[in-house]
Amino acid sequence: MNKVFLCKEIAKGETRVALNPADAKKLIELGYELSVQSGAGAVAGYKDSEYESAGASLVKTLKDGYAFADIIIRINKPDSVAGIKENTLHVSSLDVFNETGLVQDFAKANVKAVSLEMMPRSTIAQKMDIQSSQASLAGYYAVILASSRIPKIFPMMMTPSGTIPPVSIFIIGVGVAGLQAIATAKRLGARVSAFDTRPVVEEEVKSLGAKFVKIDLGETGQTEQGYAKELTPEQIEIQRKAQAKVCASSNVVITTAKVFGRKAPLLLTKEMISQMKSGSIIIDMAVKTGGNVEGSDPERDVVLENGVTIIGGDSLERFVAKDATDMFSGNILAFLSHFWNKEAKSFNLDTEDEIISGCLITANGEVVNSRVKQVLGNA
Ligand code: NAD
What is the pTM of this model? Predict the structure, then answer.
């Protein structure tokens, strides 16, 4: 397995590509052969000729790429598995908990599907973790987006004509995206408050110079992988009540709260939003996985009667296509390099390895991932 095909993305609004020319060169130097679908890097700013200079060949169609490939790489899930040869390794994000039909299709087609968002959260896998690399950029961009939409400046400004107070930002959910959002907002001079259900986060928030909002929810915590545990409906109600005042006094609220493999919790109700000031901005970064904000829409901004705007902030990393591509590409390079077997000149699909067993979803005509099998069993 050493023939890699890089696909052009087809998802609406996608700006990235899974591999940049510099990393293409490194893969080829390692021993992989690379074929690139013509135009794959165009939106991210990479020309076909750059891939050719790196040593890749170009193909026009998916059909030709699939015929060439032992390994297919792309950012988003494919529309269908049609045309992918048996035993091909397909590497992308797959949204496996929602795309159960596609997972079954991969199994039936006897394709080995790797879902990159299932990458284990271990030190060794960190460089392959697309969730971290992309969420950092999305968290940064959420603040930049808010700053461009709010009719105010972020820092405090004292002038002879008067003093402008700093913008107040409340960040709910302080994982990878939330931490980057706090750091960015602080750099721009905002007053920042934040909350997360994982108790370990308090110190991280404080170390960035932000205020941690204390809410007593009883027992919370995190899984072995570092993900938040799901709250009970009663705990969510307590959280909503306690947050309402902070939201009402904030100019910007950014929500990033997710629970891995489950629907995101609804944390801002219409009632809470009705108490916010005119001109305030809410960005719901969990909009695609159920939404933290009542009324948020992934397709459009929602301007409410009280002058508050809700922005559905899905995949905000797409607004920084070059950096997002380079980081995703770094994750792919790390994955393909880590499993390169020099002697066999092949990708080594070592199913005993904890990285592979974590993110390999289908193989040998069946679903092999235990967490996904559980979901399918319950479906
Ligand atoms: P995520 O995207 O699943 O969730 C975002 C945040 O929302 C999390 O911090 C979560 O605790 C929080 N959240 C969930 N429910 C909430 C609620 N009701 N109210 C407020 N907040 C809520 O998480 P993530 O950003 O991917 O990462 C979570 C943790 O995993 C972080 O500590 C991160 O550093 C760690 N991590 C480790 C690795 C690694 O070791 N390889 C890789 C990535 C992330």
Answer: 0.94
